[in-house]
Amino acid sequence: MKRLFLAVVALVLLVSCAEKMTLSSPDGRIKLDFNLTAEGVPTYSLMFDDETIVEPSCLGVKTKECEYVAGLSVKSVEHSSGDEVWQPVWGQFAEIHDLYNAMCVTLATANGREFSVEMRLYNDGLGIRYLLPGQGVANITGEQTEFRMAGDYAAHWMAGSDDDAEFDYMHTPLSGITPENMQLSAGHNRDIIRCGVATPVAMSSERGTHIAIHEAALWEYPGMALSYDAESNTFAVELSGNEGVKSEVELPFVTPWRVVIVGDRAGALVESTLVLNLNEPCKIEDTSWIKPMKYVGVWWEMHLKESIWDRDGEYPHCATTENVKRYIDFAAENGFGGVLVEGWNYGWGRGERFDYTQPYSDFDIEELCRYAEERGVEIIGHHETYANVDNYDEQMGAAYAYYASLGINSVKTGYVGSIAGRNHYDRSMVDHYNRTVVEGAEHQLCIDIHEPIHSTGICRTYPNLMSAEGMRGQEWHAWHSGNSIDHNPTLPFTRNVAGAMDFTPGIFDLRYHNTVNSAAATADGSVNKDYDYRYFVNSTLTHQLAQYVVFYSPIQMVADLPENYRQHEDALQFIRDVPVDWADTKCLDAVVGDYVVIARRDKHSDDWYVGAITDDTERVVSLKLDFLPVDHIYTATIYRDGDLAGWNTVPTDYVIEQKSVTSADTLDLRLAPGGGFAIAIKW
Fold it and tell me: What is the pTM of this model?
């Protein structure tokens, strides 16, 4: 009887003290306070190294049946922890430590309805989600999840939209998130802005604490953006979709995680594994068919208007048997694993529905699959939908089975345009994107999604989701106004934080033409071009090499035309050598939007690779090699900007040199305006 009395007293004390509950990260640097206000509103605040970064902010979820946002009381509090090490199929690290402390607070409304707030603190940040118990269905209408930032932080953000993630990044204080700057971010697509900012959004305090807000484990739920209120300096979660019910879910149900990544330097955002750790373990038993690789493709030539997707277009058709064999030969010669082919199937350019099992008559798919396999190369199929998602849903099973019957292992999907009656980020499209991944796994197909929902780490659960677009990639340099000069050194701390991104790096012909057939290879392999200087890539050639290290993806495109690589065989060697699957990743130096230096260790050797890129400011990087083992002597092959190099001067001026190095060495390397360097450090 005495033990029962003590247990009851302990429970009463727990509930009566529930106005303030705390949680700390395993290393003690991050602290969370959970509170229930006098009005019964759940709130939390967040500190890092005793610096408040998120002031008391509301939590809660709204359903058509009940709004769990106020008038709540604490029913129970449970603490737990996790500590395990797991090995991703591919990634930036060979092993990932899933280490956290957790607190789950169950709250009750006045009429006895319950829900729970689960909070996890890792050494690199916070995850928060809601648990709705019971049976039947709940109709979710919104959230009351907020992030009230503790200062007018420097912010790196782009406008939020239901239909587009290919906007310019803005670099302003938080107070600079204004309608005018949102319009600048959106540019030519300004009419589709929905609310404040897309995620991930990156920030930094005056003390140098770096923060990123995003979401993880997005299933059966709409994607989120963040509205911003300048008066309270607060971000609030906005769910995509039409007014009213955003998602009908079966109970019990857990929402996606709301994620706050925290670190004491910019590189902490690059090195964070929080988004992955908040996802479920791999559900694919046999992953041997999932293979990272570099690939070439019948793609860039169409952006340059040398050919076109449509067989009956105004330019020559790109996806002919003869042309694709040319790319297969180039891939085989250089050890690249795949050839992407766009424009191969019926439906391009004539208002027809795409047919994903019917090749054009000038594209012998069976012969090309045989030809590629004979040379150790894979065909990567392309499924553009032009946002006719219903058509793709109807054909998906047959299309994937068709590819599997041909031995095709990978597919790139595309969703250009507005989707009738819905948008790219609502619940129905989240379900669709996730279906491509799950059904792809059933047919042993790897998936690369363009015009996607933003990545949320579900590649841990389904690692056949290899990569996705979701930002202004390299193609923008072929049309419109291109990308801003500070775009590339921003991406590692924003879009790439969410997951692997298919940026399509490696353009060597940086001052290219934009007129039909102005390129002609001569007998000695050289190329004559009439350059149109309105169109160019605003980087140096070594900046392009560095992208293979700086931008993470387990599939990396070698995006330029074969004849352009043949003009720079010595520089192409770095792309031949650089891996796409890593054992370790270190961001050595960075200022978001200005420059970044990243080192990665090959998963299958002791070799290291370093990449650095900058904006239009020339700078010198002192690269300490203390990340190398102390007992190794390496040979470093350095690809760096030449004395004349610059994105707007002589972008193809570069120097290649070799030297022996150890962990005690420091290399002082110049970055030209728009420049970079790439280093292969081999043992």
Answer: 0.94
